[in-house]
Amino acid sequence: MTHTEEKPYQCNQCDNTFSLNCNLIQHLRTHTWKKSKQCNQCDKTFSLNGNLIRHLGTHTGKKPYQCNQCDKAFLQNSVLITHIRTHIGEKPYQCNQCDNTFSLNYNLIQHLRTHTWKKSKQCNQCDKTFSLNGYLIRHLRTHTGRNHISATNVIRLSQRIIIS
Known about the structure:
By secondary structure, this protein is an alpha+beta fold. The protein has helices spanning 21-32, 49-60, 77-88, 105-116, 133-144, and strands at 9-10, 17-18, 37-38, 45-46, 65-66, 73-74, 93-94, 101-102, 121-122, 129-130, 154-157, 160-163. InterPro entries: Znf_C2H2_sf, Znf_C2H2_type.
């Protein structure tokens, strides 16, 4: 989901909407692919084996892929690999418009929007402007020294966000 919670991509076969086109494309497969993989514990069927495996974890609670640096465990090895990047600082996704790098492709996609979106969210403490509310809120912490700004302390006024 985008920081603005916009979901501009709508499925033409049902009412589902998505923030990213790639998620819509993946969803469209659910309408066209034969769901031949059935869960042996309930009536759900899946078109992709990976989705069935992920679903099976909801019945067993087993997460076989354990992080060796913390107590987190995962159903899929690919999710573990992505998680490990948070420990080792690996950031393989680089913006082609600036020097920023990211550990998740999703974060790069979000960041790329900052280069094209209008920066209409202005800090009330300085002249900096931001394209996403989340970036402005993160910036506001530099003025307050707080690690967390709760939603109740943030007042949205037109396109500006002010800490109360």
